[in-house]
Write a structure and sequence with these properties.
This protein is of the alpha+beta class. It contains 6 helices and 15 strands. A hairpin with an 8-residue loop joins β10 and β11. The longest helix has 20 residues.
Length: about 350
């Protein structure tokens, strides 16, 4: 893998990731951009009752919102359109978000573009490109984790207008948080309590139990298993775990890293076949990585993938019980969801 780092017109960093060594990517950004976002544009506040950290980032009200395809800021630049990516072509590109929730001392937000093709999706990538995306996620996790003040690195993809995506180009995001996120904090507390009571690791025991039961396993390889969790919150939700527990992406072994593209692409393609529709299934794909500091040694890297669609023409909305009380009500039995995901396997 070749990595090329350069700067955009307002000083933000952009990195190009290539499978070969010959690509020239250091093209100048000629746009007349204003000042970049700084730590003063966002604020982290702590909820006194829940103890959760909340980011206040009012400047994001002005971010790019559903531009036409010929004005996409994530496509390569052309003679008539200068985008966030100055190069006329790329394989995978990562750059600092122009409208970040976190900036400066409060963290960092990056955009990762999986392909220059505006009309494709991650599921349509080949295994070589998916492996390059994995390499970029790994590189960014390692570099951002080493920065002062960073407590957790989160790589994720939102896809579909139903999810709230405002840019249609295939892309994801990478957040470097200055705090441990609320969901991870809850996981750490549960795992620590289990360790204190039993001496075992809860992540390992859950994975072993799902593999032994099999009713909720969607697919499994030599190094990964994907299953619908026993108490799934979403109608179609899959957790993907490596068989050897590691804290984060940089700690993955070579064999697991090599097998990942095949397993993950098959999962995404099954999601697109779930409902028999021609349009792609909206989803969130989220890497859960160990935070930096206390609790890291017991955490397990895993990916959580879920859709807000519950039938071909109905969405799962977070209404009163979920949004108001975080008490989830799932309309699909996890065992039935797993069976359906097995039914739509690639022939």
């Amino acid at each position: 893998m070749k990595r090329t780092s350069t700067r955009l017109a307002d000083g933000r960093e952009i990195l190009y990731y290539d499978t070969g060594d010959g690509a020239a990517r250091a093209f100048p950004d000629t746009r007349p951009l204003g000042a970049r976002a700084t730590a003063s544009t966002s604020e982290v506040r702590r909820d006194p009752l829940l103890g959760d950290s909340v980011v206040i980032a009012s400047h994001r009200q002005d971010r790019t919102y559903h531009p036409p395809a010929d004005a996409c800021p994530l496509c390569p630049s052309t003679e008539g359109h200068a985008s966030e990516i100055p190069a006329p072509d790329y394989e995978v590109a990562v750059f600092e978000n122009r409208f970040p929730s976190l900036a400066g001392e409060t963290g960092r937000c990056e955009v990762i573009c999986f392909t220059p093709d505006h009309l494709t999706s991650f599921a349509q990538l080949d295994e070589e490109r998916a492996a390059l995306v994995m390499a970029a996620w790994t590189d960014r996790t390692a570099e951002l984790s080493a920065r002062d003040g960073v407590r957790q690195v989160y790589c994720f993809e939102n896809r579909g207008t139903e999810i709230g995506v405002t840019l249609a180009h295939p892309h994801g995001q990478i957040y470097a948080f200055p705090f441990v996120t609320p969901r991870t904090t809850r996981m750490l507390a549960t795992v620590a309590g289990h360790r204190a009571r039993t001496g075992g690791n809860l992540f390992e025991e859950v994975l072993a139990a799902e593999r032994a039961d099999g009713s909720r396993v969607v697919l499994a390889g030599e190094h990964w298993t994907a299953f619908v969790p026993y108490a799934a919150r979403w109608p179609y939700e899959v957790h993907l775990h490596p068989h050897h527990r590691v804290p984060d992406l940089p700690a993955l072994g070579d064999a697991a890293r090599a097998e990942f593209p095949r397993i993950y692409l098959e999962l995404l393609r099954r999601f697109d076949r779930l409902f028999g529709r021609t349009d792609p299934t909206p989803y969130i794909s989220a890497w859960h990585q160990a935070p930096l500091g206390e609790g890291r040694e017991d955490f397990a890297l895993h990916l959580e993938l879920f859709t807000v669609r519950r039938t071909a023409d109905k969405l799962k909305y977070l209404a009163g019980t979920e949004s108001g009380m975080e008490a989830y009500m799932n309309d699909v039995r996890p065992e039935d969801a797993a069976a359906r995901l097995r039914e739509v396997a690639t022939p």
